């Protein structure tokens, strides 16, 4: 307990720095903005901001990105509730009951319920992060090269399995990502690989231009094309709620469903920890569980506040949980945490069990930062809920021009080389084509991030074991992880075979 209090005070000392507080506030406002604009989403915003965070202190840079992440997840409910168009992909289920409430003249009540549910889910996820990341980090001290190799492979498999109906595409994109990491000088042997005589490829293909291309530039091209315009039917568009003050009854109604609130938080936290699975599955389980347990299941999808609570609580409970594998094991579970990992590495800070003992001030600073982010976003959104409808009217083509400009400037500013701009443009077109074809790009990004770690640990494993699988008999944790992998693969193959 004394150690916890000591580390907590260290975190407070870090978070009270002016640069960290300003980064936190700026990121929260940016996150709210991008989350409330249909078709934009946090990935593009984080990609654009990523180069700027490299010049900040690690906690300031991470606080900004985390605030964008959380703010977008909160604000995605705004257009979902007001105009039946989710601001972020995870807000789809919020349209089911949020928009019918708006049609009944309960827009402010629906927004208040959504923001309060998000706050509860987000706060509980931070508590879970604080407890589980430390425990997992302690447990992972038993991990050696073999265990880390197995954990990374398990994460990659879960990423593929999460893309049901598109697993072949996910495998292909993951393979492309892993291949990209082999370009340049091998970190293990010093061998030159796949450079085709180009000296510019000796250092490989950097992550940031790829991320900016696949997320920011590709999103800009889609917005410029006009493919993500929000619905603006003058008949269906709701009138703004001009009532002043906070809807206290809306806040109170959230806590009238404690089982739904905490069950949805548990789904979000439990599933959010798993790499590659994320908030979509958490939302699906929590929404359907709430409907089955409800005394009035037929009202779900017709404006039942309980459905809105289940959806918003679960997707925001994922935000803190998604950081658990990143901090404890150094394994990002999805694209946004993969981008955050680059903020660590650019400052020579490496997530994993050693981080908790070497830099507890940074770890606990992240915990406190997440709590402050949730409080600030919640208060801001409640205060501005009556004006929320204005943000949904911003023209998407103008946004596309701004994003494209910022992405190109950010790419060039990394090291003032045009080669990064060309890489970003190439992957921007690649990402645009992939999205139009319905091919997931997240597996490729995670392949690029995890590829070098997997190669390093795999080489260590092969040296230790002399290429023999018999080493697993002496490594029960690794054996268990590999057995779990085989079960997942067999189950996935069987499910595909059963459908054919």
Quaternary: single chain
What percent of residues adopt helix (DSSP H or I)? over 70%
Q: Compute the number of strand runs.
A: 2
The sequence of SSEs as H and E is HHHHHHHHHEEHHHHHHHHHHHHH
Q: How far from one another are the termini?
A: 56 Å
> What summary fits the major beta sheet?
2 strands, antiparallel
Unreliable runs, pLDDT <50, ≥5 residues?
227-238
> Can you count the helices?
22
Nearest-angstrom radius of gyration?
A: 22 Å
Strand content range: under 5%
Secondary-structure-based class equals mainly alpha
Number of spatially distinct domains: 1
Shape: globular
Within the largest sheet, what's the order of strands? 1-2
Summarize the structure.
The chain is mostly helical.
Describe the structure.
The chain is an all-alpha fold and 500 residues long. The chain has one domain (2-165, 229-417). It is 71% helix and 1% strand. The chain has 22 helices and two strands. Strands 1-2 form a two-stranded antiparallel ribbon. Helix 8 crosses helix 9 (167-180). It is globular.
What structural keywords apply?
2 strands, 22 helices, mainly alpha, 500 residues
Topology:
Layout: H1 2-15, H2 18-36, H3 42-53, H4 58-75, H5 77-83, H6 94-103, H7 107-139, H8 145-161, H9 167-180, E1 184-185, E2 192-193, H10 207-225, H11 248-254, H12 258-272, H13 278-293, H14 305-321, H15 323-329, H16 335-346, H17 353-358, H18 360-384, H19 396-413, H20 418-436, H21 442-465, H22 476-499
Helix pairs in contact: 1-18, 2-4, 2-18, 3-4, 3-10, 3-16, 3-19, 4-7, 4-14, 4-16, 4-18, 5-6, 5-7, 6-7, 6-14, 7-11, 7-12, 7-14, 7-15, 7-18, 8-9, 8-21, 8-22, 9-21, 10-19, 10-20, 12-13, 12-14, 13-14
């Amino acid at each position: 307990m004394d150690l916890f209090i000591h580390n907590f005070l260290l975190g407070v000392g870090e978070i009270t720095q002016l640069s960290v507080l300003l980064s936190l506030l700026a990121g929260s406002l940016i996150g709210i903005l991008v989350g409330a604009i249909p078709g934009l989403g946090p990935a593009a915003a984080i990609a654009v901001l990523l180069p700027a965070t490299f010049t900040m202190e690690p906690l300031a840079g991470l606080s900004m990105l985390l605030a964008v992440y959380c703010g977008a997840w909160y604000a995605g409910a705004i257009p979902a509730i007001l105009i039946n168009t989710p601001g972020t992909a995870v807000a789809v289920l919020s349209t089911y009951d949020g928009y019918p409430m708006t049609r009944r003249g309960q827009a402010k009540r629906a927004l208040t319920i959504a923001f309060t549910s998000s706050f509860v889910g987000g706060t509980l996820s931070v508590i879970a992060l604080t407890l589980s990341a430390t425990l997992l980090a302690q447990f992972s001290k038993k991990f050696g090269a073999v265990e880390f190799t197995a954990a990374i492979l398990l994460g990659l498999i879960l990423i593929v399995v999460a893309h049901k109906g598109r697993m072949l595409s996910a495998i292909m994109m993951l393979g492309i990502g892993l291949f990209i990491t082999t370009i340049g000088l091998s970190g293990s042997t010093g061998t030159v690989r796949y450079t085709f005589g180009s000296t510019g490829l000796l250092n490989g293909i950097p992550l940031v231009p790829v991320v900016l291309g696949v997320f920011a530039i590709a999103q800009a091209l889609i917005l410029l094309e006009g493919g993500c315009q929000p619905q603006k039917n003058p008949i269906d568009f709701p009138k703004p709620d001009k009532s002043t003050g906070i809807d206290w009854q809306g806040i109170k109604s959230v806590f009238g469903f404690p089982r739904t609130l905490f069950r949805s938080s548990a789904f979000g936290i439990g599933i959010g920890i798993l790499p590659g699975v994320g908030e979509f599955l958490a939302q699906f389980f929590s929404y359907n569980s709430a409907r089955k347990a409800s005394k009035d299941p037929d009202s779900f999808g017709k404006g039942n506040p309980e459905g809105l609570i289940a959806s918003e609580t679960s997707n925001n409970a994922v935000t803190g949980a998604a950081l658990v594998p990143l901090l404890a094991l150094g394994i990002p579970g999805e694209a946004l945490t993969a981008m955050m990992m680059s903020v660590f590495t650019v400052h020579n800070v490496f997530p994993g069990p050693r981080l908790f003992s070497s830099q507890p001030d940074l770890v606990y600073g992240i915990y406190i930062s997440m709590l402050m982010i949730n409080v600030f976003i919640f208060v801001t959104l409640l205060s501005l809920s009556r004006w929320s409808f204005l943000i949904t009217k911003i023209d998407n083509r103008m946004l596309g021009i701004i994003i494209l400009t910022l992405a190109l400037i950010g790419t060039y500013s990394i090291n003032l080389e045009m080669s990064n701009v060309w890489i970003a443009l190439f992957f921007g077109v690649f990402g645009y084509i992939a999205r139009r074809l319905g091919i997931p790009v997240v597996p490729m990004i995670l392949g690029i991030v995890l590829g070098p770690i997997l190669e390093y640990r795999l080489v260590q494993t092969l040296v230790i074991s002399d290429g023999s699988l018999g080493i697993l008999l002496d490594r029960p944790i690794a054996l268990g992880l590999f057995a779990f992998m085989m079960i997942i693969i067999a189950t996935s193959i069987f499910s595909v075979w059963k459908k054919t």
